[in-house]
Amino acid sequence: MVAKERPTRRLSEAATNTRLLVAGSRGRSGTPGMLLGSTSQSLLSVAPCLVAIVRH
Fold first, then answer.
1. Position 48 in a domain
2. Which of 3, 8, 26, 55 has the highest count of CB atoms within 10 angstroms of its CB?
3. What pLDDT was estimated at residue 36?
4. Tell me, what's the pLDDT at 48?
5. Among candidates 35, 32, 33, which has minimal Cα distance to 53?
6. What is the extent of the structural domain holding 26?
7. How does DSSP assign 1-56, residue by residue?
8. Is residue 2 part of a domain?
9. What is the distance of C-alpha 13 from the center of its chain?
10. CA torsion angle for 16, 18, 20, 22 (degrees, to 10)?
11. Confidence (pLDDT) at 38
């Protein structure tokens, strides 16, 4: 899925009937020292299922 606006919301809605959501860990903001991107970090708290974060 590609979502240009509100990706956390779109991914959470799409994961309603799933057991596992897999997301990438690299953010695009370019902030040094960030282990997770903002979308991945948000998904950990709002997703309705388990979330696996995969490092790029």
1. yes
2. 8
3. 79
4. 96
5. 35
6. 7-54
7. ---SS-HHHHHHHHTTT-SEEEEE---SS--TT-SS-HHHHHHHHH-SSEEEEE--
8. no
9. 12
10. -70
11. 85
Span 9-54, pLDDT tens digits: 999 999 999 999 999 887 666 665 567 788 889 999 999 999 999 9
Distance CA 48, CA 42 (A): 12
User: In the prediction, which pLDDT does 37 show?
Assistant: 81
Identity of the residue numbered 37: G
Phi-psi category of residue 6: left, alpha or beta, with phi > 0 → left and psi -120 to 50 → alpha: left
Q: Pick from 27, 21, 26, 11: which is nearest to 52 by CA?
A: 21
Distances in Å between the Cα of 30 and the Cα atoms of 9, 26, 27, 37, 49 are 22, 9, 7, 9, 28
Number of domains in the chain: 1
Does 1 fall in a domain? no
In a domain, 42, yes or no: yes
